[in-house]
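Sequence in, structure out.
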Amino acid sequence: MMIFGNITSSDLMTFEGRTVERIDPIQDKKSKEITHYRLRVVSNDGNIELRKFRVEGIWHLLENEVLIIDRGYHNRQRQMDRVIYGHNELSGATKAQREKVDLMVFRSSMMGRFHTMGMKLTRAGVEEYRPLMEADYRSYQARKNYGIEKANAAQFHKPLPSSDTLLTNFRKFRKADGNPNAFLIPRAEPIDLELQASADFCFSMEYLGRYADATRPSKTEICRGLIDELEKINRERTEVHHPVLIKVMSQRTYERWIDAYLDPFLTCLQRDGLAAVQKKFGFVEDGRTSTVIGGSVQADAWKFHLVTLDTTREKYNRMTEEERKAIKKVRRWVVVIIDVATRCILGFSICRTPNERASLKALRMVFMDKTYLFRSAGIKKSDWNKRCPFYEMVNDCGSEFG
């Protein structure tokens, strides 16, 4: 058996895409040489089919990938991968568990086949078809365990379970949509006591957080509700034999937890509103901050307190005295872009009302040398060459920033 001498229980063999339960060598009676191999192939309906090949044929099947040996298919890592990405993988099952589940799956498939033939899903209906099912079950075990077509008295076969067990397993298998994991007993997960205690404390604090609400509930109301909820959870854990119960404190202890652990700022804000929390804590918002030049700039529009004439200097110089008296006096707006890190004005635009054109003019000025404005105003010994690219702009919802 040199071809299959190193097959282990974690390997999977498939023939034409179907699982091979076992491969038996057949020796010549005179020469004792292996001449054939018998394959026990699982058919699509869960039954066992016997296939016999010469040694040369086995090599041909392996070369053409009709017979495939998948090394390490049943190891723990690949099982976990199939649990995550697959559907019908037996999670963490040993070889003995897989064989036990295979028998249960075959019995359930056999029940489904006889139910299609007219068997009623009652005790009397199962007993009526029991002789036929027992014959099929013995033949299946003979092909699976001994590699022969018919069962005989020299073989050991597991008996067919009772009608109630067959019906229960069939309904479970059908409800699971043919998933064999329905027959696998889930492994108990160890409980981390420290993690469970932390989770219980977080649950208690989340419930006590209901004190910070605009409806202004009292501490007594919240603490009594928490005690009732914890007692209910402990009763449920006792029913399912959960080893960890939540330690229920006194009402006064939970009231002290509210004062000690809840954020007083958020509690006051939720219960009394913004005006009350500003009065109590006396805070002022700092707004956006940045330490990198050009990391963040702020854009906004302000209305001047200064009143000016609604005209330009060129037009004003060409006007008569009567026309100058008719000029309206207005308060103009300025759109300004300021670097947050340095508080340097990078661009501005003066306009009668805020608009997109003024914002675009201020935006273009961010990347320009603005010294020419000083020269036009008669300032000769100063410059304004502050300019930089920026990564973020903060502005309000004004239409001038559309």
